[in-house]
Amino acid sequence: MKKHLIAAILCAAALPALAQTVDNPIPLVNGENEFTFQIDPEQAVYYSYTPAADEIVTITSDIRSFYVTVKEKDGAFLKSVYNWFYETSTNNMFMVEKDVEYNVLIEADHDAGYGPGDKMKFNMSTAPGDHTLATFENPLPLGSEWKLLPLYGLNNDAMVYSYAQYTPEKDCTLDIFTDWYPWTIEYALPGENPQWTNIPVLTHASSLGSYVWPVDVSGGQSYIFRIAGSSSTKIWVTETNYEQGSSCERPFAARVGANRLPAKSGKYYYIIEAPTIDKDAPDNNIEIKSSASLSGGGYISLSRACNDPNYDFTVYENFALRTKVISKQTCLIQIFKPQDTAADELFEIKFMSPQPYDDFYTAYAVIPGYQMTTPEYPGTYYYMIEPVGEEGMVLTVESDYQPKNEVSVTLSERSKGYGYVAKGETSLRYTELAPDNYYVLTWTSHDEDCSIPFTVNVKKGAQGETAYWPFEAKIGENEMQAGQLLYYRFKGSDEGWVNIYPEKGCPEPSVNMARDDEYSKRCVVLPIDGGYRVQNAKDREFTFKFRTVPEGAGFRLSETPLGEGECMEKAIPTDGCVELTGGPGVYWYKYEPEQDLKLTITTDLKQEFGQDGLQGLISGYTLYHNSANDYVVPEKDWVNGDIFPLTFSAVAGDTYYLEVVLVKMENNATISFEGRPADPGELPTNPIVIENAGSPTEYDFPRTEWASNSAVWYSLHLYPGVLDLETDGSIKVELYSPDNLENDGIITSSGYLSFDADTGALRYGFGHGNEYYPAAQIENEGDYLLKLRWCDPVHAIFTGSALGEQSGVSDIAAGGDNVNVVVSGRRIILSGDTDAEVYRIDGVLVDRVRVHGTASVEMQPGAYIVRIGSRAVKVAIR
Q1: Residue 677 falls in which region: left (phi positive, over 0), alpha (psi -120 to 50) or beta
Q2: What per-residue confidence (pLDDT) applies to 280?
Q3: Separation CA 843–CA 611 (nearest Å)
């Protein structure tokens, strides 16, 4: 029997069992327990525990990503585990029964920092328990102190209930607290046929860090509760008296339409459920409006539950709230009324379908030249501007509204999403309208700001006002006219730099490529002495943009070639230490080792992001090997900016280029090359030789860790034929033809293994992509290179006709008869006077051949064994 598994999955299965298993558990003891990871920190560790009495077991750890699974010895999962996947807690609890043996599986996520050889510590404690509690006949007695309530999930798709009981001392509201979220809590009076009533959850995330399920109860009356859920929970109760409407636990019941707000100042709470919405309207909007005043510090707030930190929408000093809600959402409304009034006041609640201006992509269409007004509620609203159909148009948004708080208006290209191309408070101007693009205007207002009037206008821009009709810039002096925003166009004449020197108050330019340039639409403007520069290219058009140009301003242009260190072709040679003291820009260096080396590059340069016109630049370096097509970037710490050492194998005579990016105005850093002679196997020019001992050839590969830019190189002399590889562990190896290390020289790179469950052998998948187990086809004799990317310590067995010259076998003595075996193309030709059998290399019989004179059989490419009597010969079909 054979199964095909990828190497990553098979890794642990193919190795000796170093970690504990269900058949070899570690005793779980009260107090501290410890385990040393030997293979995989994500592997479950098995412990065994048999309690002497019913107990509640608690396992704690300082690891957040700490998982506990419990099974009875027969393999059945214990379903009453508390916090079995709750990553924000370190307590894991479960109820166990006297004299029952349990297997406790402990797992820690590798993100917690554990690796092979590291130790994990956790504590176990026990408390008296009673596994017979929480049944209908023996419910769990509730009180003000928490108790563990086991919950069991589903059984045959039906909820499994646990039961609890409580008798209040007085008429009150009974608050039931759970720190885990059960599916349902219901209550009834005791009796043979209880009538169950659901208790709705009120507080999803209260300040107590728990869930609250309130129910009105009568003093002295016993109540029974049934609870169902996926994970056990702590549960406790308190008796409380609330004043209706003055606390979020006992809010007024609100309704669609008019609702009464008491005349007295203070906080008031209302609750209403959003209506059911059909599938064609996935959400809705709640609108709450009143003429009542909230001036003087008042507010209206909407949430889903008391103190819900994940959902809270508040409007200050304006009785106008509008926001999105989902179907059947609990809407808890809190109103703070700052002043007493002579009489009760009214407010209205409505649920309305979404409008076009509620969504960026369905934005409300505007007509240029006509005044519009945003809704009477603060919020975010979207308006669509259709394509203008003509180049060189200028768009303006105008409003005479005076903001009371914070208002903004932005313009975005709809096809590019929410990122904006222009922004203002109540007005904006945009001069780069693409004629065929849709644009979206986004108004955002808060609190008292709403009902904002605005007008959109689109008109033809004058020369220089837009990127489509710019002024022409020339080498030398350029005089400018005054303007809010001016555009100039320039065509480069050669590779190098375009230098821009502002004069007489000319502002700093921003530079874009022409819109039809396929290379880039963005240039990084680098500061130089007295001006700025951008990288130039022959016949490439640039657009210079200047903001707020004063009267009499101008600028001077010049072109200069790339200097030393400013491109790969003019990289500055280094002997191994590069001093980085220049300003913002890109610098090139090259290193040419005189001998094969194992090199490590280190630097104290920090990864930083360019600011103040240098957006798009990130400091750091890229290493190139001989050309721009072969490169590697070092690993970085994206939090503190550290650039980690980069280690690689360098070949004598090759050239290694460093492209260094600096973003600070002043820099003082170094990059250093530190090398040592390359050991055998570190370079393809000096591989470790595997001696060809014929078929089989055996070799022990050591453990090799994965690295993106390194490997261990081996060589093996092979002949035309087929090559098979068996291992006793996981391995990733690439096989290259002699003197050809390019991608097209790879004979195999798949890394797939074929597992023979009968023999335990792993056969390497020579081939590409998803090919599982074709043997490697060797076409020509030579020293082939094996690039070992990673492996376990494995014992490898190479077999096949490629390990020895194959020329056919003549005159095999078989039971006194002579048989000649010859391979021609895809046919095995046999001549003689006896019978023969043809087997695949893995021992599967392919064909029986009766030979009386001459016979032949056609075969697919591969290695075969021809058996004649007691003799056999191996042949290869290519």
Answers
A1: beta
A2: 53
A3: 68
